[in-house]
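Anyone opening a protein record will find just a pair of labelled lines. With that in mind, the following record should read easily:
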Amino acid sequence: MPLLTVLLPCFNEEVALPGLLRRIEALAQEGLPGWEVNALVIDDGSLDGTAKIAENWNGPLKVQLLRHGVNRGLGKAMASGLRAFLLHSAAHTDTASPRSLLLAAMDADATHPPEMLPRMVQQLQRENLDVLIASRYAPGGAEHGLSPRRRLYSRMACIALRMLTPVRGARDYTCGYRLYTREVLERATAHYGDKLICEDGFVCMAELLVKLGRRGAKVGETGLDLHYELKGGVSKLNVPATIRRYAVFAWRALFDRGYL
């Protein structure tokens, strides 16, 4: 049976998480007939009720919870999620085609609409892709609710990364809403091991994309109409620190051949 696992890295998301899980639950029942859909919540040291919400979920959606005792950052949460997905999905490899074992990663703050997933699955399979990015910069994409400064930072980061570490088919390097095949994640993990994601913070999304691209991943995009004003909680992004980490990442990607 085809499998779609929705990976939700969480830090203090008790406000947004229940509604998001209900939307994924509805999607599992109506939007992807014939698919097994589940949610994988990585609680990254939350200080609120995030873990309890996932642990006590009693709807038809299967929710798996992995907990970090302390906040370790988005990169560590993503790494834990990728490992868990590869382990769980291994049991499906004999009964599903390579592009029917999929991991969807999205923010848990209500800014990424899970309702996009059925058409994202269709596009990935139709175009024979390994990675599909929900992109603000693809046709049909836009962003709302960001300050002009934040919008400028984001665009500058993506432009710089496209120039310095190009990945064919990618415009949006920083958005975390993506669909991955198990095959491409398994191939990259076999090459990089526990070094697939080294960045702890938000830069991990660019790092993962560039590493997958350098291992031959076929990447595509679909337009994302991002409504940041729907965010359920306070932003965790430290802009100056993130800019510094992007600079370090770009330097290592260009000059440290052992890194990529």
